[in-house]
Write a structure and sequence with these properties.
The structure is a single chain. With 866 residues, this protein is an alpha+beta fold. The protein is 44% helix and 14% strand. The strands form six sheets. It has a six-stranded mixed beta sheet, with helices on one face. The two termini are 16 Å apart.
Length: 866
Amino acid sequence: MKKYFSSNGLVILILFLAAAAVSVMVYPELFLKFKISPVLWSDYCVEYPLNFILTTFFYQGGLQLWNMFGQMPYYHTYAVEGLFKFPNVVTSIAYYLAAPFLGYTSQLFEHLFIWVNLMTLLFLRVVGIYLLLKTVTHKQWLIMVATVIFAVFFSQLAFIRGTCYMSYFPLGIYFVVRFFQGLQLRYLLASLAFLVVGLGNGILHGSYMYLPFHFFILAGITWRCLINPTTHPKSDIKLHDYSQWRKILLVALGAFFILLPFAYIIKYGFHEVAFGQANSRISHMFSPQWYLHNPDLELGSPQRFFGDILNMQTIDVMFYLGIVFIFLSLTGLILGRHPLKWFFAIGIFWLWLLSFPRSGVNIGLLAHWINILTNPLKTIPRSYLYACQPMLPFLLMPLAVMGFEVIQELCQGKKFKGSLVGLLGLSMLLLLVNVLPIVPTEVGIYLMVATAFLLGGLIFVQMKGSQTSRNFLMGSICVFFLADIFMMVHQIKTQLYKYENRPRILDAAPHAGIVSYTSENPSIFPYRYSYSFNFSYRDELYIWFPHIVSTDVHHVINPALNFTYLNGYNPRDAEFENWSSDQQMYDYLNQNDQFIFLASAAINASPEGLSRICAAGLAKQVVEVQDPQGELHLPDQWSRVPPRPSNDDIQYEKIIGSLDDNNDYWWLYHQQGNMIIYTMRLPDNFPDHLASSWFPSEQKYLRFLVERPQGKWQEFQGAQGRLIVPYTFDVQNMKRGELNAAFPLNDFPMHQRCVLLYPSIANEGVEKVWLRQFDNLGIIYRAGISGWLVIHEPYDPKWKVTVDGNVVYYYRVNKSFIGFPLVAGEHKILIQYWPHSPLRFLLLVSVIITTLGMIALIFLGLRWEQ
């Protein structure tokens, strides 16, 4: 048996496949039936769009510095949220490689996100837990079984909540433990590299990981001071060992290249943007006074640190871990003989202290003062509970394995010196846990019964030592262990089914109104994003955010004009102060939601100029220009404004087909529930930048009509993504080059004609998108008259605009946007953001080193453990 498992790499492969198989069998709704979407699981709501954005970068031309929603510089998101996380990069590469062979479907992206992103995190946990458990036991079968069970069932926060830093913890803990065991320099360097890679994934990501991690390092220092160092092998590394200094230099250079762009972003990126500015946690990062006097409400809950893991009804910061897991952990702590048990216990103690409030005199104030003095990222996490509690299961896992070894030896007839005294202490601890008012009554009853059975069996084995008592003890452990796993799975599935995968209907546009949260194709992502107000989801999931909901991929602004993700992110630290309570901007954007438009007249900016323009209904015809030098000699008021084309003046192109499978344009139809979905293949010359959407004015001109009896025509409503309501159609979101139309099952007009109308290139406006990279948007624009071209990108001096190969000077127009004069005719326009900045290259180096760094750490850990 041993020779088959001599290679750690082979063992990891077997364990990962086993853990993946167990995950698929336990959660078929997620991995096979796709009834549940991870997109709406807490922080997966952030991870999904980050993957989506990173994937679009592969298609749209590399790393961007200004985000595609026109909100603010994207390098803020790089620094704070962490775009280039290891699972994100793996998922994006997987989609980029697979999509050309599978039709570029948006469903493919979600399915790959479910499989690749989640399985990458599962792989990280399997590697970390396996190596961590090898530090406390040499029983290979126990390590393997425990690794699979712990990685799947006892890592709910890492598996369900979606915050990928939790899956990094076991590997980092392993390197720290190995260093303090033998004081070998290579493990110290690996620990430092692990921290650098974590911070390179983003400040917020790194800070959530660094907070408990650096307190675990403090636990190691405390442990070395309290435990006799002679119980561990001494280090034979000498200071003049130049090979070790070369390793230090290599780590230092890697850290420099990973963190340099982020240091640049922090120093410059948050202060050079005229339109928006970052605030909150970043600005208070180095303020001890703010840290002490502005505590988050989620910090002062020390009872909750332990209570949630025993409360099967709690689904918030922590998930139920089971009485057997806690029983085995306490058994390992009380009766275990491995000296590392105190390392993990001290680590738990330090993290528990951080759960105390920072005000007043309490036992936790010491931990917070240490945090002030040692943690430069101290104020970034909004909740220390969220940062510390996810680490708790991974510190309990080695103790649980020690406890199982103790019970196994007891059942083999071995006696432990002082075991009855230890059992008495264990009984008091469990009794104290059950007596404290931290769990509901019915949960407490279950815990008391389980505790009685387990303790009774353990004491009976020590006193009698009969085979019956041993069987009773092991049987009780197995029964309660299976019961705990059943309750875990039930709790998780109850949580997940709240997020059943289904499209959402927007109250604000019910007539157009079908929108799937994951409905866009990364290879086609529509270039336009407009501004809308008062959107809310008609869904029980969002009762907490009735009027401040916005999607991240489908961008919406809330009534207060702040930018938010679906669950309150995007980006967390950004606030656009000149829109937050500006009635002028509200009125203007409600009248003009076009991305690019041509204004007939321009006037000088004035305090009430935009309000007068909106009151006169001229938001699409008059532009207000800030000209501080007075070079343009613009009037202060408009005189006569030529009329602009209305929707009725739009010239259309036609695609005519028939509702059967004989026409060249039609090739597929299928039944979907109580509807028939027809798929129409678009001709090769169809504009690839047009996709049905509830945003752009340009794309609202897509019209789909079906012939009815007596020569009447029925017009369908445009939708975006998967169709869930009859008489709707989608163009190029689900698949490039396709139109999908939904008919009721009993009302399909077979053999009737249909027609798709789309704007002709003869219209004024965008004829073609010849470069779609968001930071580098190239368009062919036809101007019917001479006027001012306005681009609804927030004004920033880093933009560069080129018209027909010539750089033009642009102005701040309509308070916040970009505008410049344009003569009548057809023009080739290029809009670039910060085109010659070295920051793109630095970020590219950062993502490459960060990704390869995590792979190298996994390889080194497995090799050294060999």
